Amino acid sequence: MDQGVAAFVAGIAGMVGALGGAVAGGVAAVRGARIGAEKTAAATRQAVHDQAAAEHGHWLREQRRDAFAAFITATQAVTDASKAVTSMLHDQLIAFNESIQGLIKISSLITLMGPEEAINAAGRVIGAAERFRQRMWEESRITDHRSQESSDASDRTDEAADGYTEMVQRFIAVAQGVLAR
């Protein structure tokens, strides 16, 4: 074989090798770029998901805080209305009943926002408020305020008031724990 043909064959072989190397390099570069883009997209999706979860958590804490604060304010309104019942007058008892109805309405916010432990604690407050209302009305029906029956009814009302106060304090502790998380 003469030198010209050898040079020509070597040139063709070099060109095929260069082209093969370029194609292989191009394929590797495209594959690497695709993998990099997929990883970047996955990381971006995760960051967006994490941010959305953090924002939702913040929003939920604010909603719960507002619901808990409104409920605690309503419990204070019940306490204030009960203290205004000085002589078991019908109008005073009606105002006391209305304060309990307000408490029940506000509890629906807690039912919506949760969590379960706060819903249960609010339910216990409402149950205690209902018992307090029942005892207050029972005491108001007694006509002889100097009788033993009146004294017993007054004691039951005081016990119901104490039970209500205890349930309110338990609710506050649960609300503080929920908001601290």
Describe the main β-sheet briefly. none
Q: Could you estimate the helical fraction of the residues in percent?
A: over 70%
Question: Uncertain spans, ≥5 residues at pLDDT below 50?
Answer: none
Give the integer mean of the pLDDT values. 88
Q: How much beta, percentage-wise?
A: under 5%
In a few lines, what is going on in this structure?
The protein has 181 residues and is mainly alpha-helical. The protein has helices at residues 3-84, 90-113, 116-140, 148-180.
Describe this structure in words.
It is a single chain. The chain is mainly alpha-helical and 181 residues long. The chain has 4 helices and no strands. Helix 1 runs antiparallel to helix 4 (148-180). The longest helix is centred in the first third of the chain and has 82 residues, at 3-84. The mean pLDDT is 88.
